[in-house]
Every structure is written in structure tokens, then in C-alpha cells.
Design a protein that fits this description.
- The protein has 1179 residues and is an all-alpha fold.
- It has a domain at 1086-1179: Serine Threonine Protein Phosphatase 5, Tetratricopeptide repeat, CATH 1.25.40.
- It is built from 70 helices and no strands.
- It is flat, with a radius of gyration of 63 Å.
- The model is unreliable at 1-27, 99-136 and 1175-1179 (pLDDT under 50).
- ANK repeats lie at residues 136-168, 169-201, 202-234, 235-267, 268-300, 301-333, 334-366, 367-399, 400-432, 433-465, 466-498, 499-531, 532-564, 565-597, 598-630, 631-663, 664-696, 697-729, 730-762, 763-795, 796-828, 829-861, 862-894, 895-927, 926-958, 1019-1051, 1052-1084, 1118-1150.
- Keywords: ANK repeat, Coiled coil, Repeat.
- Residues 1-29, 98-124 are annotated as: Disordered.
């Protein structure tokens, strides 16, 4: 084997491609090429290794990350190990206690004398501790310290555990003992040299831990051992700060007594006293103060200890600080003093304490809000009472400008409100919005408080920033009792707010008739208007408040007052169809023709709304019937559009202009016609309305009527003289519209009135063309009877006849032909009526056109004759009709197909028969002959017909294969049989070619039945050789059964056996051997079949020949045997069988090479077999 394994060899699949003897020597060159490919592979491998090296740095980085993760895992495992070891220690101790064996002997007497003695237990413990990891022993030390297990501590220390060993968090065993308050452990560790100032996690020393946990004894021990009392942790906190924040007074006292700094603050400037105050540690705070701590030391937010205690409601601390002289008015950055803080948070006891000690009740925060303000906001009645007793300012304002009185009222704190009033609070004080207590009380609808305030002298007409008085607010939403009370107190009834509205206007908008009456009784201005220009009267009308309207009218309200849009009360009333109010207004003399900015009068609105009663009253009052609005529409136009016949008649009777037009150019008549209002149309016609008036589209009443198909209305208009030939902007007359709508009765009416039968609309089509297209026989007949032009063309260039043919309207076609329609007229595509009829398969129309002289020989743009077109469509009846007239039977289209070819292709046997009877050429076809088409499509019966008419089965058309060849190749045995019957001697060459390519056994038997001598001759032998080469087993078997010589050879001496061996068709080979084929026959290269099979590496064939008993030592012209070739290619199976069948491995080629030499040269697997042949191993 080479470095890259066995070199591959190219498989030889044909005799021509098989290697020669020279190829045997040329294998060296092939080997060199294979080694060159191997070198290229090595080069590629080197490139990949270089890429691997370039990525090494990334791998190293990944390994570093993995190492860190591994370290963490190891730490966790060791912790687990330590815990497990601790769990095993009691058992170990028990076992060692029972052990009584002597100590192990020393290696020498001298050594024995040097070794100290120890108890078995101590030795065992020491052994276990020595074998445990340092980290595990350290963890055990920490656990023992935390438990206070002094004995274990001492054993661990005696075993060599470092006293300063740290756990995973960085703490020493001394930290654990201090945090746990284990005095004995602390003494043992300190005695062993533990560092009292060792810095652990978060920068804390053991003293920090003891202080934070409140272990005063531990604090004392550590202090005595030299622990730094004022050492700070990572947050800057001292041990004293931690003791104070934890409310551990004994620990704090122990530190202070030993000299700890009482004011040492952390990094947030929080002193121990501040932390004690926050924690509510009064004892700790007292101790700190006794040792000189600053009582007012503040943090960065300005919070002092007293302020912190007040916020947290720590009364004991507050009392302690106040007693020690803490500053009562110290404030934080928000301006909050201790009193404010306690008030805001509702700490009653603290407030009381501070007030008793002189806290300033008027101190305000940065928003300017005092304690009283905050107490009122919080609804703290008791606090308010104390603050008032201390003289708190009743008029202090909050940031919204509210006084305590207003604030209490807003929050409905009745008790506080009452106290403030009793203390003389200002009842007219207003907030930033200008609202007084009275206005707030009115908004809340609190009758009792309103009365109370008014009794206290509150200003009844005070206004807020919106200009609203208490009366205005009361009218807008308070109980009516408050309104009445305010009016009785003399409130201004005409006060105007920022919207320009008075209380009366608001009352009217709300529809409150009772309040309106009270205001009017107090003299309210009945015509006062708001900023929109609407008076109270207009508002009442808009709201439909009948009672208020009547009340205002009784008080003399102006009935013709208009708003900014120019609308009067009458206009509004009519818009809403309020007949009752409209009648009152008219009785009061309202102006009936007043118009709004859109130009619409009351009559217009009444008409639009269909309010018949109001229309009638307005007409009786002389309203203008022809008033025009901005749209140019009169009341009559609006009425007609709405189809109100009754009002239309009234307006017409009052002299309304019947021909007035709107902006669309439509008259009342046009509108009535469009709406289908027949009674109105009749009324307008009787009043002389213009029947030919057109809108802006040019459409008249008649055009619209026709479009709607209204025959009766069309008759009325025509009787009134309407023009039949006026056109709209689309160019359509009434007749065109009637035809398009298929209104046959209207068409007759129009034609009776002499309408233009040739009128053309914008598409260029006459009524006749349109009627034909839409297949309306009745209208077509009517138009033809009235002289319509039968040759007029549509927009696509079609005549009526062509249109009728497209729609297959036989009756219309007949009428058109009777009227002389041109049968040869063509459309824009050049198609005639007859072509249309043939294309659509209408036999009757085809006959009709032929009877009228249509040209049967005309040719379409694709080169198709009518006969060819009919054949393609498969319409046998039309084909029969055309054949009676046609002369050119063999005309071809652009594809070269004749009628006969097309009929054959589609299998129309009946048409084929007719064409053949008429003399169609059986060989005619530019690309394909009729017979070839029949064979291709396997039309057996048609094939017989064509053969009977002399079609040649071997004729090749346009370089294509012959029909016989196609049939043979396709396996159509029945067709082949028919063709064999008619072949002549001149066809035998082609017949032989066809036999050679027979695709199945049935075809072979068809040839044998008709031409047995041919099959048994050279043609059959060539067919046998070809089928063997192709592997067509059934064909080969049939030829052998017929009697073809199995040993036939080609010009190169190759037999059928050789051909099967070249291609590897072992099944065919076996069949040939069964039929007596001679495997010893040699070809031109002196090869027998087995040598050819071995050379072409077709193992199955080699094996089949061996099993057939062939001579295995046969040699070719270069003395190669089958064994040589099998060894050359490494075909292990064949080599084994050849050797077992007696192949001589020592035979040499003409170049002196044995089979072993061939195998060695290619370094293949056969070397071992050939060397071990005849040995026991081979056997």
C-alpha cells in the first residue's frame, strides 16, 4: 500500500476503451500522477495546520477562562470535602479510641529512639489532619471557631493549620469566632497568634463583626488584644457605627469606654449617633451623648439625629436628644425640621414632645408650607388643635396658595374647618386660582357650609380667575337650594365670566326652568349673550326648552336676534322641526325670510326637513318661494329631490319657478326624473317645465328617463315634444341609451318619433352594432326594419355580421344576410365571417354563409385554410361541408401540417377516411408525414388506412426516422406487423436497421412472422449483437428462439458474448451460454470472452463464465490471461475463483510478468492470495 492507499483505476466500459499492453507499462506514469495528487493533498494538509496554529491564541484564551472556572469548582469541592471530613471526625475518633495496637516499629533502633511517642488517638487524628488539604483544614478551623469548639481548634492548630488561614470569602477563623461571640475560641486563636486587625470581606476586622453582632465580651477581648477601635470597613463604618446601627448598646458602651471615637462618620457622613437615632436605639444614643458625641451632626442630606428620630417616630431617642440640647430647628436639604417631619408623618407623640420643648410652629419647608398646613392636609385634628393652641398662623399658604381654611374645606375636614373659623380664619382668602372658601363650598354642594360662610360675612360676589362667582358655580352644578340662598343674599345675577356667559345663560343651557325663573325674577338681562354671540333666548331655542322659551318670550326676549353665523331663533327652530316653538315665534312676529350665512331661509330648512305644517305656516306668512341659497338651490329644488309631492304642489301653486337650476345645472324636472318621482314630473309638465333642459353633462330629462327604462315617463316627455336626437357629453342619444339598456319598447317609441337610427356614440358604434353585440334580437330586428346600415363597423372594425358570428347568433346572421350584409368583410385581424363560424364550430352558420357565396379557399394570417382550421377543431360536420367546396386538400400551414396530418394526429379516423377518399396526398407533410404522425401517436387503424393508400413505411421525411423505425423503437408490434406486410425488397436495408433497434420481443416476432429469412440472416445477427451490447434481454432471447446464430461476430471478431462482457450484462451472457454460444471464440485481439470480462472489470461476467466451465488459462495476443487482469485490478473474488478453477499463477505475459507481478506493481490486496496459493493458509 502507498501512503495514500491503493491508487484508483479508471473503469473500462467498452472494448475500445480497454487498456492495451502498453497501458500495463504505462501504469508507472499513472502511479506518478497519483503520487502528485498525494503531494497536493499534503500541501493542503500543511495549509490547514497553519490555520490551526494561527488560531492557537484564541484557544489559549479559552483555556484560561476554563482554568478560572475550574479553580472555582475546586474551591467548592474542597469546601464539600471539609464538610464531609467534619462529619467523619466523630467516627474516626471513636475508632481510634478503640485501637490499642502498638506504634509501628522504627526502621532502626536509632530512629526508634528519636521518634516521640504519642497516643493512638492523637496519632490517628494527626495523620488524618496531615492528609487533609490545607484549605479543608482551614475550613474546619473556621467551623470550629464559629461553634466555639476550642478542643478541635487546638487540635487543628497543633496539626499545623495556619491560624491566619482564610475562607473563600476572605475571613479568618478569628472573624468567625468574633461574629459568633465565642469568647473561648477568641482566646485560643489570639493565644495562637491570630491577627486581631486582620481585614476580611467588605474590609471588616474581627472587631467589626463582634460589634455588628452585639457581642460586648468579644469586643472587650479584641480591644484588649490590640484591635484598632476606629478602623473602618469598605463603607467607612467603624465598629462603633455598626454597634449603634444595630442598637447594640452594651457593645457600643464597651467601645466608647475603651476610647472609640464617638463622632467617626462613614463615607456618607453618617455619625454613630445618627445611625443609633435611625435604629431607635435610645440607650446607644445616650451612651454616645455621654461620651461627647455631637448631637447635631448631620449627614450629606442635612439630616440630624433628632430629625431622623422624628421621621421614624422614635420618641425615646427624640426625648433623649432634646434633653441633651439637640437643635430643634435644624432642617434637612428640603427645609424639613423635626416638627414638620413628625407632622407630615402623623407622629402625634413626637409632635407633642417637640411642641412642649419649644419647637417653632411657623417653621416652613422649602415649599413654604408650615406644620399647620401639613396637619390640615393630613386631616390630623389633634395636631391642628395643638398647633392652634401654640399660635400657628391661620393664614399660612401652601404652594397652591391655599390657606388652612380652604384646604380643610377641600378635604371635607368639618371639625378642622370649624376650629379654624372659630379662631377667626379669613373666609375670603383665595388660592392661586382665585377660589375662596365660599366658591369651594358651592362646588361641593355643601349647603350648611355655604350658609355658615355667608353668616361669617363671606363675599357673595367674589370671583375666581375664570371670572366665575359663587352664583355662577351654583347655577352650573350646585343644588338649587344654594342658588336660591345666594340670590336671597343679593348675588349679582348678571355677573359675566371669561366666556362672556351670565348665570342666566348657563341656566338656560342646562334647561333648568326653575332657576331661569328665579334669575328673571331677580332682574337678569334676558338678552345677554355669550362670546359666541348666543343670547339666552337662542340657547333655549337650540336646546328645545319650550318652557324656558315661553318664559323668555314673556319677558320680552328679541325674537330676531342672530348668532355669529347669522342664524335666528326661527331658523334654529325650523331646523329641528319644533312646530310649537315655530308657531310661537311667528305669532311674535319673527322675520320669515331671514337667511343664515349659507343663504338658507326658514322655508328652505322646513322643506329640507319635510316639515309640512311649518312650510304651510311660512307660506301663509308670505315666505319667499324662490329664495336661493349658496348652492343655487330653491325650496322647490330641495322638495323635488326629496320627492315630497305635497310640498312641491304647494310651492308650484305659490308661483315657484319651475325652471330654476342648481349648481349642477339641473332643473326641478331633471331632479324629479332622476328620482323617479312621477307625480312631481306630471305636475311640473302641467306647469310648463322645459322638457329639453340639460344638466352640465348635457343629459336631458328624456335621456335620464330612457337610461332608467321608464317607458311611460318617456312617452309623456315625447308627447310634450322632447327632442330625440340631443346627445350628452358622451355622445349618446336617447336611442343609443335605449339600445344599451335593452329597452325595446322605448326603442320603438323613439323610432316612431324618427330618432336617428345611425347615431354614433363616442366608441364609434351605431345602435345596430351595439344591439348585435349584446344579442338583443328584438331590437336588432326593429333597427333593421327602420333602415339601419348593415355595414356599419364597431370600434374594433367589426361589422354587425362579424359581431353576430362572434356571439353565434344564427337568427341575427340570417336577418343580416337577408339585408345584404357582405360575407367577405374582414375585421382588423383579417378574419372573415366564414372563418369566425368555422372557428366557433357553428355548422348551420357555415352552411348559410357558403350558400351566400362565402370564399371557402381563403387563408388566415397563420397560413391556415378553412379546411385545416376545421380539422384542427375536430368538427366533422363542418369538414364535410367544406370538402364539398374545397379544391386544395393538401395546403399546409406555417408548421407544415396538412389537413390529413392534423386529422391523423388528433385521431379523427372519419375525417382521415373523407380526406383519403377526396384524394389527399398520403406522403404530404413538410416536417412529418401522415404515416409517421400515425405511428408516433400509435393510431393503428389509421396506419392501416394509410398503408392501404400506399404510404411508405420506410420513407424518411425531412431527415426524420422512418415510420417503421419509430414503431420498432416504440415497441408497437401490431403496427410493425402491418408495415412488414407492405415492405419491398428495396426497403430491406431500412428494415434491417429497424430490426436492430427493436425494443421488445413482440417486435422481433413481428419481424420474424413476416421476414423470417431476413431475421435468420445477417440482419438478425446484427440485431443479436446489438441487443447483447445494449443488455436487451427479452429481444436477445426472442432472436435466439427464432434461431439466430449465437456465435455470430462483427467485423472485429467480437461475438455477442464479447459484447455482454464489455458492458457487464451477465443475464444476457448466461442466456447466450444456454443457447450454445462458444466462450472460446476469440476476437481480433485474440481475447476469449473471459479475458474481455476480466479486462473490463465485470466480475459477474467472469464468475458466470467460470461457472460455465470455460478455459481459465486462455491467453490473448500478448499472453494475458483472465488471472493477469483480475490481479492487475485487485479483483479479489475473481482471483480466488480463477485459482480454485486451476488458473496458472505462473503464466507470464509477453513482457514476462506473472499475475503476482501485476498485483505487486499496483500494491493491491491480491498479493497475499497469490503468494499463499497452494499453501495451507490459502486452503
Amino acid at each position: 500500500m502507498s501512503l495514500f492507499g491503493q491508487a484508483p483505476r479508471t473503469t473500462t466500459t467498452t472494448a475500445a476503451a480497454a487498456p492495451t499492453r502498453a497501458d500495463g507499462d504505462g501504469a508507472d506514469a499513472e502511479e506518478a500522477a497519483w503520487l502528485a495528487r498525494g503531494a497536493a493533498w499534503l500541501q493542503e494538509l500543511g495549509r490547514r495546520l497553519a490555520e490551526e496554529r494561527s488560531g492557537r491564541r484564541r484557544a489559549e484564551l479559552r483555556l484560561e477562562e476554563q482554568q478560572r472556572a475550574l479553580d472555582e469548582r475546586v474551591a467548592r469541592v474542597e469546601e464539600s470535602l471539609q464538610r464531609a471530613l467534619e462529619g467523619l471526625m466523630p467516627k474516626v475518633e471513636e475508632l481510634l479510641g478503640k485501637h490499642r495496637a502498638d506504634p509501628p516499629p522504627a526502621h532502626s533502633p536509632a530512629q526508634a529512639q528519636q521518634q516521640p511517642t504519642a497516643s493512638p488517638s492523637a496519632q490517628g487524628t494527626a495523620l488524618i489532619l496531615q492528609q487533609a488539604s490545607p484549605l479543608a483544614n482551614g475550613a474546619s478551623l473556621h467551623e470550629a471557631a464559629a461553634r466555639g469548639d476550642v478542643a478541635t481548634l487546638r487540635r487543628l492548630l497543633a496539626a499545623g493549620t495556619r491560624v491566619g488561614q482564610r475562607d473563600a470569602r476572605g475571613d479568618t477563623a478569628l472573624h468567625a469566632a468574633a461574629t459568633g461571640g465565642q469568647a473561648g475560641a477568641l482566646e485560643a486563636l489570639l493565644a495562637a497568634g491570630a491577627d486581631a486587625n486582620a481585614c476580611g470581606r467588605a474590609g471588616r476586622s474581627p472587631l467589626h463583626g463582634a460589634a455588628a453582632a452585639g457581642h460586648a465580651d468579644a469586643v472587650a477581648l479584641l480591644a484588649a488584644a490590640g484591635a484598632a477601635l476606629d478602623a473602618r470597613d469598605a463603607r467607612g463604618a467603624t465598629a462603633l457605627a455598626l454597634a449603634a446601627s444595630g442598637a447594640h448598646a452594651p457593645a457600643a458602651a464597651a467601645l466608647l469606654e475603651r476610647g472609640a471615637a464617638p463622632d467617626a462618620a462613614d463615607r456618607d457622613a453618617r455619625s454613630p449617633l445618627l445611625l443609633a437615632a435611625r435604629a431607635g436605639a435610645a440607650d446607644a444614643a445616650d451612651a454616645l451623648l455621654r461620651h461627647g458625641a455631637a448631637a447635631d451632626a448631620a449627614d450629606r442630606a442635612g439630616e440630624t439625629p433628632l430629625l431622623a428620630a422624628a421621621k421614624a417616630a422614635h420618641l425615646g431617642v427624640v426625648a433623649c436628644l432634646v434633653g441633651r440640647g439637640a437643635h430643634l430647628e435644624a432642617a434637612d436639604k428640603d427645609g424639613e425640621t423635626c416638627l414638620l417631619a413628625a407632622v407630615k408623618r402623623g407622629h402625634v407623640d413626637v409632635v407633642q414632645c417637640l411642641l412642649e420643648n419649644g419647637a417653632d410652629v411657623e417653621a416652613a419647608d422649602k415649599e413654604g408650607e408650615t406644620s399647620l398646613v401639613w396637619a390640615v392636609k393630613g386631616g390630623q385634628s389633634e395636631m391642628v388643635k395643638w398647633l392652634l393652641e401654640k399660635g400657628a398662623n391661620l393664614e399660612a399658604h401652601d404652594k397652591e396658595g391655599e390657606t388652612p381654611l380652604v384646604s380643610a374645606l377641600k378635604r371635607r375636614s368639618v371639625e378642622i374647618f370649624t376650629w379654624l373659623l372659630e379662631k377667626g380664619a379669613n373666609v375670603d382668602a383665595a388660592d392661586k386660582t382665585g377660589e375662596t372658601s365660599l366658591i369651594y363650598a358651592v362646588k361641593q354642594g355643601n349647603v350648611e357650609i355655604v350658609k355658615c360662610l355667608l353668616e361669617k360675612g363671606a363675599n357673595v360676589d367674589a370671583i375666581d380667575k375664570e371670572g366665575e362667582t359663587s352664583l355662577t358655580r351654583a347655577v352650573k352644578g350646585a343644588p338649587s337650594e344654594i342658588v336660591k340662598y345666594l340670590l336671597d343674599k343679593g348675588a349679582n345675577v348678571d355677573a359675566i365670566d371669561k366666556n362672556g356667559e351670565t348665570p342666566l345663560v348657563y341656566a338656560v343651557k342646562q334647561g333648568n326652568a326653575e332657576i331661569v325663573k328665579w334669575l328673571l325674577e331677580k332682574g337678569a338681562n334676558v338678552d345677554a349673550a355669550d362670546k359666541e354671540g348666543e343670547s339666552s333666548f337662542i340657547c333655549a331655542v337650540k336646546g328645545g326648552h319650550s318652557e324656558i322659551v315661553k318664559c323668555l318670550l314673556d319677558k320680552g326676549a328679541n325674537v330676531d336676534v342672530a348668532d355669529k353665523n347669522g342664524e335666528t331663533p326661527l331658523l334654529f327652530t325650523v331646523k329641528r322641526g319644533n312646530a310649537e316653538i315655530a308657531e310661537w315665534l311667528l305669532e311674535k312676529g319673527a322675520y320669515v325670510d331671514a337667511a343664515d350665512k349659507e343663504g338658507e331661509t326658514s322655508l328652505t330648512y322646513a322643506v329640507k326637513g319635510g316639515h309640512s305644517d311649518i312650510v304651510k305656516w311660512l307660506l301663509e306668512k308670505g315666505a319667499n318661494v324662490d329664495a336661493v341659497d349658496k348652492n343655487g338651490e330653491t325650496p322647490l329644488l330641495y322638495t323635488v329631490k326629496r320627492g315630497n309631492t305635497e310640498i312641491a304642489k304647494w310651492l308650484v301653486e305659490k308661483g315657484a319657478n319651475v325652471d330654476a337650476v342648481d349648481k349642477e345645472g339641473e332643473t326641478s324636472l331633471l331632479c324629479a326624473v332622476k328620482g323617479g318621482h312621477r307625480d312631481i314630473v306630471k305636475c311640473l309638465l302641467e306647469r310648463g317645465a322645459s322638457v329639453d333642459a340639460a344638466d352640465k353633462n348635457g343629459e336631458t330629462s328624456l335621456v335620464y328617463t330612457v337610461q332608467q327604462g321608464d317607458t311611460e315617463l318617456a312617452k309623456w316627455l315625447l308627447d310634450k315634444g322632447a327632442s330625440t336626437d340631443t346627445t350628452d357629453k358622451e355622445g349618446e342619444t336617447s336611442l343609443v341609451c335605449a339600445v344599451k339598456g335593452e329597452y325595446s319598447e322605448i326603442v320603438e317609441l323613439l323610432l316612431e318619433k324618427k330618432a336617428n337610427v345611425e347615431a354614433i356614440h363616442k366608441d364609434g358604434e351605431t345602435p345596430l352594432v351595439y344591439a348585435v353585440k349584446h344579442e338583443n334580437c328584438e331590437i336588432v330586428k326593429c333597427l333593421l326594419e327602420n333602415g339601419a346600415n348593415v355595414e356599419a363597423r364597431g370600434k374594433e372594425g367589426e361589422t354587425p355580421l362579424l359581431c353576430a358570428l362572434k356571439g353565434q347568433q344564427g337568427q341575427i346572421v340570417k336577418w343580416l344576410l337577408e339585408k345584404g350584409a357582405n360575407v367577405e368583410a374582414r375585421d382588423k385581424n383579417g378574419e372573415t365571417p366564414l372563418r369566425y363560424a368555422v372557428k366557433h364550430g357553428n355548422t348551420e352558420i357555415v352552411k348559410c354563409l357558403l350558400e351566400n357565396g362565402a370564399n371557402v379557399e381563403e387563408i388566415g394570417k397563420e397560413g391556415e385554410t378553412l379546411l385545416l382550421l376545421a380539422v384542427k377543431r375536430g368538427n366533422t360536420e363542418i369538414v364535410r361541408c367544406l370538402l364539398e367546396k374545397v379544391v386544395k386538400l393538401d395546403a399546409t400551414d406555417k408548421e407544415g401540417e396538412t389537413p390529413l396530418v392534423c386529422a391523423v394526429k388528433d385521431g379523427h379516423k372519419e375525417i382521415v377516411v373523407w380526406l383519403l377518399e377526396k384524394g389527399a396526398n398520403v406522403e404530404m407533410g413538410i416536417k412529418v408525414s401522415p404515416l409517421l404522425m400515425a405511428v408516433t401517436n400509435k393510431r393503428s387503424e389509421i396506419v392501416k388506412l394509410l398503408l392501404q393508400k400506399g404510404a411508405s413505411p420506410t420513407r424518411q421525411c425531412n431527415n426524420s426516422d422512418s415510420p417503421l423505425y419509430v414503431a420498432s423503437k416504440a415497441g408497437s408490434a401490431d403496427i410493425v406487423k402491418e408495415m412488414i406486410r407492405v415492405v419491398s425488397e428495396s426497403d430491406l436495408t431500412e428494415v434491417s436497421r429497424c430490426l436492430k433497434n427493436a425494443s421488445n420481443a413482440e417486435v422481433v416476432w413481428s419481424f420474424a412472422d413476416g421476414l423470417r429469412d431476413l431475421v435468420l440472416g445477417r440482419a438478425g445477427e446484427e440485431a443479436l449483437l446489438q441487443s447483447a451490447s445494449d443488455g436487451r434481454l427479452d429481444v436477445l432471447e426472442a432472436l435466439l428462439q427464432v434461431g439466430v446464430n449465437p456465435n455470430a461476430c462483427d467485423t472485429f471478431g467480437d461475438s455477442a458474448l464479447h459484447n455482454t462482457c464489455y458492458k457487464g450484462h451477465s443475464s444476457c451472457l448466461k442466456k447466450l451460454l444456454e443457447a450454445g454460444a462458444d466462450p472460446s471464440v476469440k476476437n481480433a485481439r485474440a481475447e476469449t470472452a473471459i479475458i474481455s470480462a476480466a479486462r473490463c472489470r465485470n466480475s459477474k461476467c467472469v464468475i458466470a463464465l467460470i461457472e460455465g466451465g470455460v478455459e481459465v488459462n486462455a491467453v490473448d495476443g500478448d499472453s494475458y490471461t483472465a488471472l493477469h487482469w483480475s490481479a492487475h485490478y485487485g479483483n479479489l473474488e475473481c482471483v480466488r475463483m480463477l485459482l480454485r478453477k486451476g488458473a496458472d499463477k505462473n503464466l507470464k505475459t509477453s513482457m514476462g510478468k506473472t499475475a503476482l507481478d501485476m498485483a505487486l506493481k499496483n500494491n493491491n490486496v491480491c498479493v497475499h492470495i497469490l503468494r499463499s496459493h497452494n499453501s495451507q493458509a490459502f486452503i
